[in-house]
Write a structure and sequence with these properties.
Belongs to the histidine acid phosphatase family. This protein is an alpha/beta fold. Helices cover about 35% and strands about 10% of the residues.
């Protein structure tokens, strides 16, 4: 995904004059990892560097004493756990990415972490004051294995209708036409991939898996079988076909349930930012929500939020360590600003914000032109597709067993609801409150049923930065460096 720079601003763009950042929600992709065709996947040294650099970028923007757009009331050097909410699926790649990111966000505190005991002696914590910030683990009973070991997009969504909807892509005219028109292209790659894929598997049906394997090899393998076939044009088509394939599985405007992960994520974002708004005057209130997940959730959310209207690049897979931030800002000087005085800004970085020269860039949501939306407008638009209620999730997904058994008869409830007209007391309207309140229950259900996996990693991977370790490289290369 090579987003156009038409809307790009300078990196670390400071908040507008008189503007205060009340809080931020960050959704982040894991760092570079090994190839999916050779599980278990693992975060690589490069991947660790990518997410650590991103964490440092976010620290310089929001957390540090000299941050360019500091979050009001946030602790600068020592992490206050009540101000942070960090989560990632039970997956080594995602969990380790979150931990590395947090060490960039709150690095070892050094002398600041020194404590004086009652007897007058100083005690220095280990590792230079390493900060132990917990990452809430989302358990997926549905997946039974780590997220990044599954190649299929909906592998751990747990949502029956979402999986059916994604499978319908394989019978669509677009898919069948592309399958036929690219047959010779994928056949030509057999000398490169025949150590992993059979002749029958060399087709557009496996566009992502083939792309991932070759992309990994081009980064890490010193030699690749028949490497002369991998011209720049071939590599470009591999990527664009993988983008096309994964977008088809992640989002369809005629079948919104296909984007279930983005719908649940939308409800979580609203819930988190509303919590920040409600506790804006409290030092212990939530300032920063952070969630790590996979590229499919990005794609699903982008589709629902109408970001492809800004650029077709939003239909491609985001690079490793990509992230978006949703800022809650105000020009009010009140300790707890009214909802009418609060606005929201969406920013995105394709690839690590710390290694991307452009850093975070603002983009307009919901087919609008402005990049700064009133809180009520933002919440209302998100509420149109957000799934924040257990019953609504069950009915939308067609699930009737487990925690969904009580909703099988069609109990009352809505998937999203209108989220407009927030109250002037700094809260949100009753319809939005329904989405926000219900998502708290949904998070618990997600942990039990694997629903949250639909949010944090709709069984996806990534587009431009996949690579393997030497052991995995041997599958594609006769000699690895």
């Amino acid at each position: 995904m090579a987003l156009t720079a038409a809307l790009a601003l300078a990196a670390l763009l400071p908040a507008a004059a008189g503007e205060t950042v009340l809080g931020v929600y960050i959704f982040h992709r894991h760092g570079d990892r090994t190839a999916k065709e050779w599980p278990p996947t693992a975060l690589t040294a490069l991947g660790t560097e990518q997410v650590l650099s991103s964490g440092t970028y976010y620290r310089n923007r929001y957390i540090g004493a000299n941050a360019s757009s500091p979050i009001a009331g946030v602790s600068h050097d020592l992490a206050v756990l009540s101000q942070l909410s960090v989560s990632a699926p039970v997956d080594s790649v995602l969990q380790n990415s979150a931990q590395a990111f947090l060490q960039g966000l709150y690095p070892p505190a050094g002398s600041v972490a020194t404590q004086k005991l009652a007897n007058g002696t100083d005690t220095n914590p280990p590792l230079g004051g390493y900060q132990y910030i917990p990452v809430n683990a989302v358990t997926s009973a549905a997946s039974g294995s780590s997220s990044e070991n599954s190649v299929w997009l909906q592998g751990t969504s747990g949502c029956g209708n979402a999986m059916i909807s994604s499978n319908e892509y394989y019978t669509s005219t677009e898919y069948l036409d592309t399958l036929a028109s690219t047959a010779d292209f994928y056949k030509s790659l057999e000398p490169v991939i025949n150590g992993t894929f059979t002749e029958a598997q060399a087709s557009f049906k496996n566009a992502y898996a083939i792309y991932d394997l070759i992309h990994v090899a081009t980064i890490h393998n010193s030699t690749i079988p028949s490497s002369s076939l991998l011209t720049p044009e071939t590599l470009h088509q591999l990527q664009t076909r993988a983008d096309q394939h994964e977008w088809g599985l992640a989002y369809n405007s005629s079948s919104p349930i296909r984007a279930v992960s983005g719908a649940v994520l939308a409800a979580q974002i609203v819930q988190s930012l509303n919590s920040t708004l409600q506790t804006a005057s409290a030092a212990s209130g939530l300032k920063l929500g952070i969630q790590f997940g996979a590229y499919g959730t990005f794609m699903s959310f982008f589709g629902l939020a109408q970001l492809p209207a800004v650029s077709a690049d939003f239909t491609g897979m985001v690079d490793y360590a990509s992230s978006f931030a949703v800022e809650l800002v105000t020009n009010s000087t009140a300790a707890r600003p009214a909802a009418a005085d609060v606005a929201v800004r969406f920013l995105f970085s394709n690839g690590s914000a710390g290694l991307n020269a452009a850093g975070l860039q603002p983009f307009p949501l919901f087919g609008r032109r402005e990049t700064l939306l009133p809180w009520d407008t933002f919440a209302s638009e998100m509420g149109k597709f957000a799934i924040g209620d257990t019953g609504a999730w069950c009915r939308a997904c067609g699930n009737t067993t487990g925690v969904c058994a009580d909703y099988a008869a069609g109990a009352a409830g809505a998937a999203g609801g209108d989220a407009g007209n927030g109250g002037g007391d700094g809260g949100v309207s009753r319809p939005v409150a329904g989405v926000i309140g219900a998502v708290v229950t949904l998070v618990v259900v997600l942990a039990l049923e694997g629903l949250l996996m639909a949010v944090a990693g709709l069984r996806l991977t990534k587009k431009k930065a996949a690579f393997s370790t030497e052991a995995q490289a041997d599958k594609l290369s006769t000699s690895s460096k």
